[in-house]
Design goal:
Blueprint: H1 2-13, E1 20-25, E2 28-34, H2 37-40, H3 47-59, E3 67-73, H4 77-85, E4 90-95, E5 119-121, H5 126-142
Parallel strand pairs: 3-4, 4-5
Antiparallel strand pairs: 1-2, 1-3
């Protein structure tokens, strides 16, 4: 999660919502990314989606069933859908996202019957992940 936090800090420095993600296979980071929605004016440029794209390119396959995703904030419905469809086996996230989180905060998308099973673990480095988001939005309110 510390590597995902480094990615989130890159987003923060670029005035993007500070969410970072990494994908690991065989205990090696194969992709890393952060939100780039504002920079690219593309609503799909969430950290998780970007990391999935990069991992799929590296592995030359959209099947990421031997991969784990670490992300600083609870995935939204769009990202949860991409995670499920790419067959990622484990998701580890830091802090809950009360407005859009699709694990437990608003809906439980990972528990949809008939979908590939994704194991989801929350609260990893929760304070650090939450603190970064709070600092970002505090600065946005000041501006």
């Amino acid at each position: 999660m510390k590597e995902a936090l480094l990615e989130a800090k890159k987003a923060f420095q670029q005035d993007e919502v500070p969410i970072g993600a990494i994908i690991v296979k065989d205990q090696q980071i194969i992709s890393r990314s952060y939100n780039s929605k504002e920079k690219n004016q593309d609503v799909t440029q969430h950290a998780e989606i970007n990391a999935i794209r990069l991992a799929s390119q590296k592995l030359e396959s959209w099947h990421l069933n031997e991969c784990d995703l670490y992300v600083t904030i609870e995935p939204c419905a769009m990202c949860a859908g991409a995670i499920i469809q790419s067959h990622i086996r484990n998701v580890y996230y830091g802090a809950k996202e009360p407005k859009t989180g699709a694990h437990v905060s608003t809906i439980m998308l990972f528990d949809t019957p008939g979908q590939p099973k994704v194991n989801v673990y929350s609260g990893v480095e929760e304070f650090s992940c939450q603190h970064l988001m709070l600092e970002y939005f505090k600065l946005k309110r000041i501006k």
